Amino acid sequence: CLIVLGIFSLLQKEITISIVAAVLTIVGYSLNNTIVILDRLRENIKFKTREPFENLINISINQSLSRTINTALTTIIPILALYFFGGNILSDFALALFIGMVAGTYSSIFIASPLLLEWNKIFKIHQKGIRITGKKGKK
């Protein structure tokens, strides 16, 4: 979001309602991509309890990488069509979506997971051999 607004500021383009709609759409896509990766991590934590957390994050990213890239590419192709054939109003909207999709996909893969890893190093939420699924055992 901030990258889109920063680039629009550098290009001295006006922030219109359509740009605000594009930014909100970007937030949704970026959150969805991050949730998919973290959901895969949650599943891997359940079944690979003895694996170090760093490896679990790496495995989770690799398992969901093709899905994330395919989703981004299938969204970017129509966005490029909007940019080239949509006229002045739609071209700004499409430019904002394009920049945001690239930045959002990048941040979901390369920023969110390492941030979670650093958070885990500080707070020690997941340790080797400890399950954090939240399910209680039978009494």
Automatic annotation (TrEMBL):
<keyword id="KW-0813">Transport</keyword>
<feature type="transmembrane region" description="Helical">
    <location>
        <begin position="15"/>
        <end position="38"/>
    </location>
</feature>
<dbReference type="InterPro" id="IPR005665">
    <property type="entry name" value="SecF_bac"/>
</dbReference>
<dbReference type="Pfam" id="PF02355">
    <property type="entry name" value="SecD_SecF_C"/>
</dbReference>
<dbReference type="GO" id="GO:0006886">
    <property type="term" value="P:intracellular protein transport"/>
</dbReference>
<feature type="transmembrane region" description="Helical">
    <location>
        <begin position="69"/>
        <end position="87"/>
    </location>
</feature>
<keyword id="KW-0812">Transmembrane</keyword>
<keyword id="KW-0811">Translocation</keyword>
<keyword id="KW-1003">Cell membrane</keyword>
<protein>
    <recommendedName>
        <fullName>Protein translocase subunit SecF</fullName>
    </recommendedName>
</protein>
<dbReference type="GO" id="GO:0005886">
    <property type="term" value="C:plasma membrane"/>
</dbReference>
<dbReference type="InterPro" id="IPR022813">
    <property type="entry name" value="SecD/SecF_arch_bac"/>
</dbReference>
<keyword id="KW-0653">Protein transport</keyword>
<dbReference type="InterPro" id="IPR022645">
    <property type="entry name" value="SecD/SecF_bac"/>
</dbReference>
<keyword id="KW-1133">Transmembrane helix</keyword>
<feature type="transmembrane region" description="Helical">
    <location>
        <begin position="93"/>
        <end position="117"/>
    </location>
</feature>
<feature type="domain" description="Protein export membrane protein SecD/SecF C-terminal">
    <location>
        <begin position="2"/>
        <end position="120"/>
    </location>
</feature>
<keyword id="KW-0472">Membrane</keyword>
<dbReference type="InterPro" id="IPR048634">
    <property type="entry name" value="SecD_SecF_C"/>
</dbReference>
<dbReference type="GO" id="GO:0015450">
    <property type="term" value="F:protein-transporting ATPase activity"/>
</dbReference>
